[in-house]
Amino acid sequence: MESVLITALQQGLIYAFMALGVLLTFRLLGFPDLTVEGTFPLGAAVTARAVVEGIDPLLAVLLGALSGGAAGAATGLMHTRLKVNNILAGILTASAIYTVMLRTMGRPNTPLLNHDNVYGQILGWFGLIESNITIILVLLLITLAARALLGWFLGTDMGLALRATGSNERMIRSLGVNTDNTKLLGLVIANGLVGLSGALACQFQGFADVGMGIGVLVAAIASVILGETIFGGHRLGRLLTGVILGSVLYRGLLALGLRLGLPAEDFKLMTAALVLLVLAMPNMGISRRLAAVRPSTGIGSIKRLWSPFNPNRTGKGSGLVGNPSVPGRTNGCIGTVSQTGRGDDK
Fold this sequence. Notes:
Blueprint: H1 2-29, H2 36-52, H3 57-80, H4 86-105, E1 109-111, H5 118-125, H6 132-154, H7 157-167, H8 169-174, H9 179-205, E2 207-209, H10 216-231, H11 236-259, H12 267-284, H13 286-293, H14 299-306
Antiparallel strand pairs: 1-2
Helix pairs in contact: 1-6, 1-9, 1-10, 1-11, 2-3, 2-4, 2-9, 3-4, 3-9, 5-6, 7-9, 10-11, 10-12, 13-14
């Protein structure tokens, strides 16, 4: 079980950046961005090429994040300036990224086993030896910094405008906000986080491959839904933390499955089934019960909520997908509504 926990923390924290990016676009901005399938391996490819060329590993990671932001900008410009459908814009960008990756690396994959990585570099600053535990500490530090910065940004006027764009675009536009610019900014930040995730994964695994992005979007959505359903809430700070924990939980479930002997080729099917199950939870009346159980840990409360004879049941769920009982407009992508009040920032 120790190996399962270590794997969950290492991979979960690496992929948490991607989950935060998907949360920003799908959940808060209401933009179904499919660029993620290309942005993740693009960040890895740019980082790998930079490391091979002798560039500092930390700078290489930043270049990977910037390349992801550039890909997000391409999708945003296609949608806002050329009026291309948002889903089609993401598909076009992801398709073009494949060629960019091949041109960048010069081949389908690039090994980094004989090169320095960013984890050893950061640990060297503090005189620490690279190990599983110290790598987790580095990842935890970077993740907490990213979570704090993202939480701070979403609490600023620009961040509130971005969240309001996803909640009610017509209303925020009537107040004089250029929603095209907020969408573009959101896509740049989100895909920058995804590119950062790819860059960190590349240096952790010791290679970059053009096929690294296959299935990562569904995995990120699963992490977001798990985090929001189990750990999260309507408050922004709790939601961000919940998504990070959801990413760790998801990777832990995969590691546990491997430990129990489940075939690795079945994992993507299991992930799709998990996402479908959680999306169906509102119609099954499960989400409302989970939300009601969170504040209370009493066994009696849990039994009462799960009882089929509970007179307080409504059967409508908590609004993970389009529940009209939650105030505000649902975005129809993953979650309920984007809270825009300053009181929800903490």
